[in-house]
Each structure stands twice: as C-alpha cells, then as structure tokens.
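ok, trying the design again with the full structure, not the truncated one.
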C-alpha cells in the first residue's frame, strides 16, 4: 500500500509507526506539512498526519489552513486517513469537532494510562505530549478517554489518537529538551520510564498500529 506520511514538524517524525509500516511492506512517501498538496493526498492509499508544536486553530499559518481543507476533502470522500496528536486534532477540526488549549493550562508530558477504553488495544500506557484537548466530531466513535480528554476516536475510514504511539525514547527526549521549559520535565526520569515502557510495549504497539490501519482501511 502507498502511504503518505505528513511530518508536521521535523522533530515529530513517524518513528516506530514508520518502522512498522515498512516492515509490513508498505511504501512510504514522506512530505512536510508545508509541502503537502492535493496531488500528494490524492495519490496516497493511506494518509498519516503526524504531530506538531502548532495548534490546528492557528489557521493564520497558511499550511495549517490548507491542510485542514485537504483533510476535510479526504474525509468527505471517505478515503483512509490516520491522525496522531496534531493530526488527530486536524481530523476532528476538519469535520465539525474542535480543538483548543486546555482551560486549566494542563500539559501532559510522559507516559500515561487510560481511564476509559472501548477497545483494549488502545489501553496504555502510551507516550503523551499535548496541552490541547479534542472535542470529537458529532458522529465520531470515542474509543479512549483519560483525565477529561479524548484520546482516540474513529470516523468512517478515519481514526485519530491524541497520544503518541510512534514516539521512541529519543523522540521523547528531544521534546523534553527542545520544546519544554527548563525544570518542567525530569529528563533522566523520563529516559528511565521510556527505557522501561518502550520495549515492554512492543507487542501492544504493533497491535495498535495494525488496528489503526485496519480501522482506516475498512471504515
């Protein structure tokens, strides 16, 4: 299958998800959010929208507004699409949902479980790195919630996860060091947590990736 991977930040790559897709024999084309256009979206059998330090509500940024329109068109055509964090927010915002900063200023950084799941394959712990919260589209199936936030939802031929199953220990360390105010994250503790959970969750991660592709493909 031809998979278009949209890197919405150079520091939020496809990581473990990209490795899994390649291992399954899929052909990946990687483009930046800024370079994404209608031709690339049209030519892909599956689109994967990845994370960004920006918010999908920052529509004054040209590429974000353009990606929202392209995402809405793909969803309307019911063509397979998966969103991760910013990508999930993009899917929600494109079809009647919403995304905004958490009113209480919370920001999740690290590994977190799930309070509520409708499908056990989505149960954590998973890496999470976000200060925005999704309001799911009206017709979406909400699959997972935690601490008052929507963590996974599905639409016909589309699925979004607010958490980061693709994030490797190195990716998480980069986010802690590059995008986090000094002293907010104990980097050594995060590294220890990642060293524990990332290998322990290998099977769960593979099962989740298979479920994401399956849900997007079968609708």
């Amino acid at each position: 299958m031809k998979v278009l991977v949209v890197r919405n930040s150079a520091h939020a790559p496809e990581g473990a998800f990209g490795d899994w897709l390649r291992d399954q024999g899929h052909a990946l084309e990687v483009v930046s959010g800024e370079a994404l256009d209608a031709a690339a979206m049209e030519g892909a059998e599956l689109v994967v929208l990845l994370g960004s330090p920006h918010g999908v509500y920052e529509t004054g940024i040209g590429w974000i507004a353009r990606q929202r329109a392209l995402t809405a068109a793909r969803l309307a055509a019911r063509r397979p699409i998966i969103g991760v964090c910013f990508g999930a927010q993009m899917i929600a915002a494109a079809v009647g949902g919403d995304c905004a900063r958490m009113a209480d200023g919370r920001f999740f950084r690290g590994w977190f479980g799930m309070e509520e799941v409708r499908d056990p394959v989505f149960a954590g712990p998973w890496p999470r790195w976000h200060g925005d919260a999704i309001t799911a589209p009206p017709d979406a199936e909400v699959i997972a919630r935690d601490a008052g936030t929507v963590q996974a939802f599905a639409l016909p031929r589309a699925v979004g996860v607010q958490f980061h199953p693709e994030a490797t220990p190195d990716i998480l360390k980069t986010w802690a060091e590059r995008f986090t105010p000094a002293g907010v994250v104990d980097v050594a503790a995060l590294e220890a947590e990642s060293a524990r959970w990332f290998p322990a969750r290998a099977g769960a991660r593979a099962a989740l990736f298979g479920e994401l592709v399956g849900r997007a493909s079968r609708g």
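Keeping the full-length input from now on. The two ends are 16 Å apart (CA to CA).
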